[in-house]
Amino acid sequence: MKIGKVFKYFRQTKHITLKEACQGIVSVPFLSRFENGLTDISFSHLLELLNRINVQLSEFEFLYQQKNTTNNDLLPAFQQAYQEGNAAQLKKYLSEWQKKQGKFANLQTIQLKMMLTTLGEGTVTEDELAILVSYFQKIDNWTFFELYLFGHAISFLELPIMLNLFKELQKKEIIYDDFRHDNFSILFYIYNNVILHLLANNCFDEAHTLVNHLENYFGNHDKDYYHQARLFNLKGLTLYLMDQKVLGLRLLKKANLITYLTNHKTDFLKNEKNYLTKYLSTEELSEVFNFSEVDYLK
Amino acid sequence: MKIGKVFKYFRQTKHITLKEACQGIVSVPFLSRFENGLTDISFSHLLELLNRINVQLSEFEFLYQQKNTTNNDLLPAFQQAYQEGNAAQLKKYLSEWQKKQGKFANLQTIQLKMMLTTLGEGTVTEDELAILVSYFQKIDNWTFFELYLFGHAISFLELPIMLNLFKELQKKEIIYDDFRHDNFSILFYIYNNVILHLLANNCFDEAHTLVNHLENYFGNHDKDYYHQARLFNLKGLTLYLMDQKVLGLRLLKKANLITYLTNHKTDFLKNEKNYLTKYLSTEELSEVFNFSEVDYLK
DNA sequence: ATAAAAAGTTGCATATAGGTTAAAAATAAT
DNA sequence: ATTATTTTTAACCTATATGCAACTTTTTAT
Questions:
Q1: CB atoms within 10 A of CB B179
Q2: CA-wise closest residue to B288 among B237, B226, B241
Q3: Among positive and negative, which fits the CA dihedral B22, B23, B26, B32?
Q4: How far is A119 from chain B (nearest CA, A)?
Q5: Of A14, A40, A55, the CB nearest to B139
Q6: Average pLDDT for residues B139-148, to the nearest whole number?
Q7: Which range is most confident: A27-36, B166-175, B208-217, B249-258?
């Protein structure tokens, strides 16, 4: 219980006295006791105190989690290991979570197995997928946890089932409209995967609808260049496959051009190219990844 | 005190029973009373409960703030009014905060006056600026609150004083390295303004140092295209003014090209162009804002 | 429709969060 | 060094957070 200590750190580094910090909220002796870990505090009082010393709850939480070894939410940890392709670390997490019991521990376990499978080092059974599906069907509010879980499940689920779940998600998604950047990234990631999955299965119209739907987002977030570029990419491929080849290729090139100009890691463009090999002809491919006209800017 | 209600919403929409949610943390009856607003809860218990139902504190806070009319942190509200150029609304806030007393209310007041001044509808006295400076000098931990305050103060402060304060900030900034996107935006905004201010005062070397410092960030955040483009812009102008005109103009053009391709509001590029009029010749300007070579992609 | 089971609520007991006062210890100011 | 201010600690007290058992309501099963 070092919550108090974190508060003390903020207060002292801002040179605010106990008296200034607590006026009208709690008493001086109590605040002192709280800061020194001798007593707990109510949530609403903590909110008021943080407001008084001009610290956002997110800032407070950040430092608190950082100083706490018993990490409360393990999602970022999973994510990191997964993105690094660190299968060994994921297996560690897996054996930890397999010891625990309960519905949610089980879901975490399945999530880890899916991650490992994607990395080529694991398997997911039919039963486990059934558990996932029934969980998603039951839920009618998606938070970061479910978004993340679903994002990894997309390619494991049968297309019609996956699409149905996705429709459920869309109904709720409004909450995230002006939500934190972190959460929108996950949401976009899901859209991205669903659309690619649809295209791979020749469901062009559905994919197109989703692309159009995504476009609305950028009315309010015109500074989100990265996702804008990804959207050009998705739209480009979709139009290309819907026989609007010229327009499609232009969009694909635009996406690549932006990516190229912003110095995104070269691996990224290499992966993009790899993926498009499935769809584009050799000439088209080399045109879409030809940046000679702006090369002088590099 | 509708904290409990928000928790109840999350729990119920995820179809988790009281028993499942509280096992090993609090008792069923207590959780029920908390949810119905009959009692407060300790912060640590709330954290555990949120973790149990797989809701992030930030998600919880978001919904809580949204449903709470008595907004706890007014920074976003200020920001919105300021960005919209809504002077009337800012004046409203000002008269509200002038009624309150205390050091922080005073700081908020000054901040509002600076905003209004920037919009051409207010004045800030020397005394008020002195208060600001002494506040920043005393502080040795910068949170969102101070970042925001400083961001608006930059052009009001004497250059050497401002630079000293900025150096203090830089020492602390490490905390924000892998911090939330929101906070980094503010930090970048500050860097941006400081660099432009330096350039306007012919302090090229200092500006260049800051530009180099900013570049380090993008090693870990290569998906942040928007800020990457802004950095190209800053670096371009800096190099241009340091007599590396060719390289500088290339970077400026690169920044504009990215901005153009991502469909950022046309006002944005117009403002950029306006600003650069101070420095570039007419021919240079029209070249840097000439997008004919990629026009066919639009 | 009715019983059985589970989920949620209420009343009372108690542990603990938090206030008040005062005094000791530690910092800051002169 | 001496004063003044801030912080910590202590003792005692009150309000309230929380647990337990019994109760009511809702859901599920037959």
A1: 16
A2: B237
A3: positive
A4: 22
A5: A14
A6: 83
A7: B249-258
- Helix, strand, coil shares of chain B, percent, nearest 5, are 75, 0, 25
A293 contacts in chain B (CB < 8 Å): 293-294
Is residue A108 a contact partner of residue A97, using CB atoms and an 8 Å limit? yes
pLDDT confidence of residue A1: 47
CATH topology of domain A3-67: 434 Repressor (Amino-terminal Domain) (1.10.260)
Neighbours of B9 (CB within 10 A): 17
**In this structure, what token pair is assigned to residue A220?**
């309010």
What pLDDT digit, counting tens, does each position of A48-57 carry? 999 999 888 8
Distance CA B274, CA B272 (A): 5
Per-domain boundaries in chain A: 3-67
The rounded distance, in Å, linking the Cα atoms of B112 and B116 is 6
Residue B70 has pLDDT above 90, yes or no: no
Q: Which residue has the tokens 């609305």?
A: A216
**Looking at residue B73, what is its pLDDT?**
61
**From the alpha carbon of B33, which nucleotide's C1' atom is closest?**
C9
pLDDT digits (tens, 9 = 90+) for B243-296: 999 999 999 999 999 999 998 777 899 999 999 999 999 999 999 999 998 888
Chain C footprint bases within 7 A of protein beta carbons = 6-11, 16-22
